[in-house]
Automatic annotation (TrEMBL):
Compartments reported by the entry: Cell membrane
Organism this protein belongs to: Castor canadensis (American beaver)
GO-annotated cellular components: plasma membrane
Classification via Pfam families: Cadherin, Cadherin_2, Cadherin_C_2
Alphabetized PROSITE patterns for the sequence: CADHERIN_1, CADHERIN_2
Gene: LOC109702603
Protein name per its UniProtKB record: Protocadherin beta-10-like
Length: 444
């Protein structure tokens, strides 16, 4: 058996490729010289006879290196003589790799968990992928894929090691700001052309007890404390008020319990631990103080627990129709406000009184001057050319009136002085009797 050509390495995915060409011969003659050559069955190869005992070994179809990377082929040659003689020859064929397999992640999705307030650079988990190819075609590189939401700054939150696939939180995460984060990672081989795949990663941020309870009612930052009114006739179990608080954490870290820490009268009030209701524990008596101060503790169920306290002011009243009596501090503040108001009112009244007094003095002086001037002045009646009788000028019985004017001059005035005032003196008119004679003399 003479091999004229032989290649023991072949690329996968290479159908109908010739691996070897060889010739067989037998030194006998006649029927003893006739020969047959064959290979074992169930191999993806064909042995073809051409002419003059030349054979070709070729692939039957595409080979898959990932299934079988090496084949051992045995050639068996037998003559037709009696007894038949045969010989065997074996070769090894290596199937070289082609980059025909993309990387595959061990899981299509990963769920990782990290507790909030983590240290920067903390290892939070790993992703892993494999490639069925060989050599550089199987060398993988991991990367973070751009998120679909462009506003999500993924690169500032997590990073991935390109060679190992390990994921590092870059900065501390806050559960109250970010509870979950979804992103995709990719794995690409170094073949030509490179093939890649991707997987989904869901990062869950676990809550840590980093928020203290916050009291909503009663408000602790108000300018004046809130006072609860309690009627003296209240029965035991009377609901006075309810402390309302919230916690920014979640789960058991947000479970709140309430406890009465201090009280002016310890046995008078009780606080329900699960809902914060403040109720009376007994009947009130006349000996109970009119004002009480309670301190309630609100605590969460975290580890370690965090707490906050709130102060309640309680005022005992005979009934809700009774005017509200402020606390001593509020009363003092109100007293100072009332005193200031009183001072302002007194000052305003003083200014008004002084102004009124000035007006009265001014008017009195003016009146006094006018009275003195009037007593010293004289009045003269000007006779002039004013006739003292009545004349009929219309011929229709209409009487024409004559007037006199009283001229009042001030003391020391002369005839050329100005008038102080003029006063018209109306005459007394007497009707004429029969015959046109007057029944009375006109008077002025």
């Amino acid at each position: 058996m003479l091999m004229s050509s032989l290649s023991n390495v072949i690329l996968e995915n290479s159908p109908e490729t010739i691996l070897a060409v060889f010739r067989i011969k037998d030194r006998d003659s006649g029927e003893n010289r006739k020969m047959a050559c064959y290979i074992q069955e169930n191999l993806p190869f064909l042995l073809k006879l051409s002419v003059d005992n030349f054979y070709m070994l070729m692939t039957e179809g595409a080979l898959d290196r990932e299934n079988t990377s090496e084949y051992n082929i045995t050639f068996t040659v037998s003559d037709m003589g009696t007894p038949r003689l045969q010989t065997e020859h074996s070769i090894s064929v290596q199937v070289s790799d082609v980059n025909d397999n993309a990387p595959a992640f061990t899981h299509t999705s990963y769920t990782l968990r990290v507790r909030e307030n983590n240290s920067p650079g903390l290892h939070i988990g790993s992703v892993s992928a494999t490639d069925r190819d060989a050599g550089t075609n199987a060398q993988l590189t991991y990367s973070l894929l751009p998120p679909p939401e462009p506003h999500l700054a993924l690169a500032s939150l997590v990073a991935i090691d390109a060679d190992s696939g390990q994921l590092f939180a870059l900065r501390p995460l806050d559960y109250e700001a970010l509870q979950a984060l979804e992103f995709r990672v990719g794995a690409a081989d170094r073949g030509s052309p490179a093939l890649s795949s991707q997987a989904l990663v869901r990062l869950l941020v676990l809550d840590a007890n980093d928020n203290s309870p916050f009291v909503l009612y009663p408000m602790q930052n108000a300018s004046a404390p809130c006072t609860e009114l309690l009627p003296r006739a209240a029965e035991p179990g009377y609901l006075l008020t309810k402390v309302v608080a919230v916690d920014g954490d979640s789960g058991q870290n947000a479970w709140l319990s309430y406890q009465l820490l201090k009280a002016t009268e310890p046995g008078l009030f009780s606080v329900w631990p699960h809902n914060g209701e403040v109720r009376t524990a007994r009947l009130l008596s006349e000996r109970d103080a009119p004002k009480h101060r309670l301190m309630v503790l609100v605590r969460d169920n975290g580890e370690p627990p965090l707490s906050a306290s709130v102060t309640l002011h309680v005022l005992l009243v005979d009934g809700f129709s009774q005017p509200y009596l402020p606390l001593q501090e509020a009363a003092a503040e109100q007293g100072r406000g009332d005193a200031l108001t009183l001072h302002l009112v007194v000052a305003l009244a003083s200014v008004s009184s002084l102004f009124l007094l000035c007006v009265l003095v001014f008017m009195a002086v003016r009146l006094c001057r006018r009275s003195r001037a009037a007593s010293l002045s004289g009045c003269a009646v000007s006779q002039g050319h004013f006739p003292g009788h009545l004349v009929d000028v219309s011929g229709a019985g209409t009487l024409s009136h004559s007037y006199q004017y009283e001229v009042c001059l001030t003391e020391g005035s002369s005839g050329t002085s100005d008038f102080k005032f003029l006063k018209v003196i109306y005459p007394s008119i007497h009707a004429y009797g029969p015959g046109g004679k007057s029944e009375g003399n006109p008077t002025f």
